[in-house]
Structures are given as C-alpha cells and as structure tokens.
Amino acid sequence: MRAHRRARQLSGMKAATACLNAAWVGAQARSYFAFRAALREPQRAQEAILHRYLRLNATTEFGGRHQFHSIRSVRDFQSRVPLSDFDDYQEAVDAIQSGALKILTEERVLCLQPSSGSTRAAKLIPYTRTLQCEFGRAVGPWLFDLARRAPGILGGPAYWSVTPVNGQSREPGGRTPAVGFESDSAYLGGWLQRLVQNTLIDCEDLKHAENIGEFRTRTLLRLLGEPELRLISVWHPTFLTLLLEELSASWEQLLDLLARGLPAAGRLRAIPPRPHRASQLKRANPQLPGSLWPRLAVVSCWGDAHAGGLIAELKKRFAGVWVQPKGLIATEAVVSIPFEDHQPLAIRSHFYEFIDDLGGVRTASDLERGAVYSLAVTTGGGLYRYRLRDRVRVEDFVHATPSLRFLGKEDKVSDICGEKLSDGAVAVLLARLLPQCAPEVRFFVLAPEFEGAVSGYVLYIESGGPVSETLSTSLECGLRENPNYALCIRLGQLRPASVALVPPGSAERYLERLRQSGRRLGDIKPNALSTFSDWRAVFARPSGVSR
Question: What is the pLDDT of residue 29?
Fold first, then answer.
C-alpha cells in the first residue's frame, strides 16, 4: 500500500510539474512570436527601443545633460552621447547608492548588482524593472524555442544553478538600493520570476551554504532526489563537471545521506529522507548521468571562448542528451540567445552598437558576415553606449539579424571560467601590494596556469631582494575583491593564486615570447596581466634561447 501511495504521489507531482512547465512556456508564446518578427526587421526593433529610452529618461540628470528631448535619430544619439566605460558612471552610481533618484533612469533602481571592473576589482550595475523585463524578453523566446524542439523538458523539473553568495539586503525602511539580488531568478522579476521558481528544483536556500563542500553535497542530494529531472542549466561547464566529480567520489556517502535525510542548518532547509530513491540509485552508475536521470533532455551551458573545449567532455558524460551552448549574457546586458540552431542578437532587449577594428561604429542592421566587432550597449538600467569589452564574430544571419559567436574579452582581460580579470584592476592591485611585499621587484606579470585538474593564476616575480611570505595571501585577498573571481574560487573552478620567483633575464624572455607571437617590440606594453599560459616553461629556459 505504501508503495502504491508513493507511486500516486509521484504521478500527481509529475502532472503538476508538467502543467506548471506548460503554463510557463505557454506564457512565452507572445514573446517568442514578437522576437521572430523582430528578427526580420532589426533596424525597426532597435530604433523603437532607443527612442523609448530617450523618451522615458529625458528628465533624468543624465538625459538632461545630453539633451535627450531633442534627439531624433541614432546618429543624433551617437553624436550627443560618447561611448563609455564604468568609470564614467562611478559618480552616478555613488549618488544612486546614497539614495538619489532620477540620475540615470526615471525608474527607481531596485538593486546594484556586483560585477568585475576594468580598472577596479568590482563595479555595481544598476538594475531596474525595465532591465529585468529586457532579460525576460530574451529568456522567453529561448525557452519557448527550446521546448518546441525538445518537448521532453516539459515533463519534469529543471535545475538552474544557484550562486552560493549572499546578497546584501536593504535596511528596513531605507531608501538605499540593495546590493545584489537574493535570487538568480530575480533577474527576470515579477510574475515571470514566480512562475519560473515553481518549475525548478528548489535550491535557493543553498546560496546560504557556509562552505563549498556543504553547497555541493546538498545540491547533489536535491538533484539525486529528482528522477524526473529534464533540464540542467549552468553557466560555465566546470560548475557541472566539478559536481559530477564530487558525485563519483562521494557516491556511497551521498546514497546514505539521501536515505537518512539531512536536518536543517541555519538558513538551509532540511532534506527529507528518500530511502526508496536511494535504493533505486544503488543499481545506477555515478559515472553515467543517464542512469541517474533517464529522462534528462537538455544541458545548457556556456560553449564559446574558453568554455568551448569543455563541451565535448560534457557530451561524452551525458550521452544522448542535447548539450546546448548558451548565448552571450553579461551582468549588464543579454547579447545573444540560442534560437533555431543559431545565436541571434537579443534584438528586442537593448540597443546594441558594434565597433570594428578601425573604430567605426555600426548598428545591428549594418554588420558583415565573418567580421569581428566589439560590443557597446544601451540598456533600461541606465547604461548608455556602454562598452562591454566583449568581442564577437558574425557567424550568420537569422533572417536579417546577425547570429554571433563570443570570441572572448578584448585585450588585457583574462577569463578562464567567468572571472574576468582585467589588466587595469590587476595593475592597481599590484601597485598597492608590491611596494610592501617585494620592494626590489624588477619584473612581474600575473598569468593563468593550466597545469593539473583545476586552473589558477600565478604571479611571476623577478626580485633583487626578499619577497614577503605574505604576498601570495595578500594577492589572493585582493583578487577576490572581484566578485566573479571570488565565485570561481568558491566553486572550485579556480585554485587560489600563487607566487613564483623567476630568474634574472625574465623580462627579456617575456619580450621574446610576445615577439614570437607576432607582436612588434615597439607595440609591447608593460601589462600587469598576460592571457598566455605557458610562462613557467618560458622563464625556466636559459636567457636568449627561443622555442
């Protein structure tokens, strides 16, 4: 009888989840068809978005200064408003953080979302209701198209990766915007957020986990408890591969915990015992995810730039599962989405501009197939002609809208798994640390190192005197001021930074290595950060010996 009751309960839960999924996807139909129509007329869609920004924000401090009320065309907008970086917004963000209104947008700022910066470790991006809706106008068409092509995802719950970092909430009664959303799904806002949350495996409390071991254990127990899992959506593939490694390494312990359950701990909810499910899983193979979740249909993750090489590994592990590369999404804006086997520009979300290698600026309707551009966006959050520093190539067109491939950050940014370390921020950090910890330094460069299972960063130093033993600790603390880097460390996607002393003549070896890569010596600048990863071997070679 107990088994029959359990079967009826599971059947009812499955039907309820399928109904919620169908409701969620059905709610995106209008957004899907509007997106498809906009793909045929990108110029019209983009001009409508820009004019809406100008109309709504004409009376703001920024709009008044740039005379939004008299701008009549894209060309007017480009002549009145210069291309910008975050440094151009620091004063405005400080004012918003102190409670000032109508600085960048007429709308009130909901929160300031942390992201990495180009000349500082962290920057705070304003989020408004309009910006949330703009993210929703990209997510909706993607998921509707995904359900149309992989209808199996509608039959059970999905897992969207949770960020194990606490946001700071607003003081009761205060006017200062919060720093960070409490939930990843809060990027969507409103009823869309609530509907999404009802279709997911509920892991939101896990953002309060005090250490990554507890976070992974409780995440895996939630996933193992869901035999009907249909969709896994993560950001960088290593988030998932590290979970799978923990799954295999702790398999017997996880099955025991699943059978007994876990009590609540602080803000972490209890995990009820699932002895029947644990017994089922004893016949499964932790090396084969298909034996754990036989109806899993889609894995969604980054698939471009540094993440591209890891997609093949995921496809091996998830045999028979569609591993779909995500589009390009930044904290500031969504750029492209997976759609009908392409990654078209999210044409209904923001206003986009594309900067070619000669400095020319184009709109979405003026791009050339095969060409490479740097991105600038204007968003409903109050960023205007903001340079994302992302490089994209036009792979194809979906109707008249470009389909993009993310190539990586512009020069001087290292981004192995989402940390986005910039030369400017690293230079500021080292200018603060080296006079204290290595006062006689002659040469230094921070660079990624890919040795071993997990990558990390190494600060190579040639010094004429002693180097403090505290430098590696201080370096790691400074790098963790970048919230993206700190998250990658916490998730185990990067190992902590280290310091390596290099022999005399290393500056010459550094120059020679860059010269061999095609750089003219006269063009080589003394950067604090290198994106090359073979420096340990380069510095170990005798001076004057080339590869």
Answer: 87
